[in-house]
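Thread: "does anyone have the structure for this chain?"

Original post by V.I.:
We have the sequence but no experimental structure in hand. Need at least a predicted one for the grant figures.
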Amino acid sequence: MKKLVLLFAFTIGMCVAVNAQLGNVTKKATQAAGSAGFDINSIAKGIMGKLVPGLNLMGDQAPKLNEEVMNFLKKKAGIMSLKASNAAEYTKQQTDLFNNLKNRLGFILKPDQFKKFLALRPAASDKSNPLTHLFN
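Reply from O.Q.:
Generated one for you, tokens below.
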């Protein structure tokens, strides 16, 4: 019985020690995921669902466009915390990210497709339109 109590106490002590070591890491990861407010994969899927038919993508354009959209969303997830804490810096970095995306899309899309892409910009911050994540 004495060994069982000691084993139980040792197990509890190890659990506390492990949580003390990982507590900050898991808390930061949870906050980052929550503050980003979006799932990159599902948003990329929604964006591509609008862009592929809207731009009449052909051949290897869709995979290249998807890769650029994913890269953009990953970078945007890194600045989402600024949206609440420093809106001006967020806007500046979002604009820089979007301009970089536009430059890269210029090598993937034909000129008429690029014009269509810019015309797909949502009029306002429409949360139901996945393209909002690209433009805002």
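V.I.: this helps a lot. Residues 38-135 form one domain.
O.Q.: and DSSP finds six helices and no strands in the chain.
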